[in-house]
Amino acid sequence: MKSAWKAICILLMFWLALAPMHALGQAKSTSQASAKAKAAALAKAKAQAKIKAKAKAKAKAQAKIKAKPKAKATIPSSRGTAMAPSRSPADENSLDAEVAAARRIVTGNPGDVAARDRLARAAVSLIDLLLQAEAVGDREKAQHLAQKLEKDLHDTGGQIGKMAQNGDLKARQAMGFLLGRGVLLKKDADKSCVEFLAAAEELAPAGWHAAQCLMEASPEKAWVQMERAAQRGHAAAQEWMGRRCLGEFGGKEKDYACARGYLIESASFGRSRAQTLLAYLLMSGQGGPVDVSRAIRLYKVAAAQGDADAQNNLGEIYEMGRGVPRNLNEAMRWYELAAQKGLGSAQFNAGRLWAIGVGEKKDPARARAFLVQAEGNGVAQARQVLDWLDRQTPQAPDAPSAQGAATAPELDAPKN
Length: 416
Description:
Layout: H1 2-67, E1 75-76, E2 82-83, H2 92-108, H3 113-135, H4 139-152, H5 157-165, H6 169-181, H7 189-199, H8 204-214, H9 219-231, H10 235-245, H11 256-268, H12 272-284, H13 292-304, H14 308-320, H15 328-340, H16 344-356, H17 364-376, H18 381-391
């Protein structure tokens, strides 16, 4: 019995000795499980934090995008292509300030490379301005900028050449201008065309001049360049493409709707020749509906810019009372303005009107002077009125009328 109790006591003591170790193992296991759970929870929290941070950053970026002003959309061409906006040249006033600042540095230190580079870049931008002025037909501004180039930037030709050699397309366009006209550099038409053709890859003015270079030797390639320049927003190229749609410049057939599309784009830039021709299409209803009021507005804008055809046609509008109250004095004013520019049809109209009388006013001597000029410019009708004046008939029942005289602008290639 004692031995049995002894055995039981030994087993009890052994179990008691093992119990703490078992509890420690359980605690350790529980602790490890708890640590793993905490680690998992922490990882999950970090992942969620990252997701939230990304979402917040995305929302912030979208908010910035919304806050920025939208870029101007390209202007859709009437032929289904998008007309890329032309590059805006630097402002003339800012260029003047840049040239003055760089020139002061060069005056004090003629060897300052950075200052001379600034002058060359200013010259490139000035030439870009000049070419843009020519594109819209602003000859006065173009001449003013050309004089400024020769006076203030006369020593930049060599540096512009270096910029061109390094692949600067605007510099290559500038070189095309300088070499083509013999400004700052010796004139070289062949090299000028090489530079313009290279710059035509991106620049509309260069494309226009590249087309001129190719026109005789390779007219098909020339018109490819012309169309590209038109699509890039070159007003002169747009006018020429419009005239080609009317059968000029080798155009195979007349497409008045095509002509209107190009001329609308060109006229929107302020090119007076395009405004005049577009006004004629609107007045006659060719290529679209008749729009007399819009045509008159365009004629007035072009006439105010000095376009002789617009002035002559505006004179006829007032003489005939087409869309405006009939006003012979106003008609004569516009006829004479156009006649002074050497337009034969306007000289005939002014002479004819003075011969038959403007209201109660007649001036045979003045009429004869205009009619002689008109005859010299190939207007055959002028001889009829001159013969009538020679007969000194007191009345003029058979005097030639204005009907049909110079109703459309002359579709001559503009001189740019």
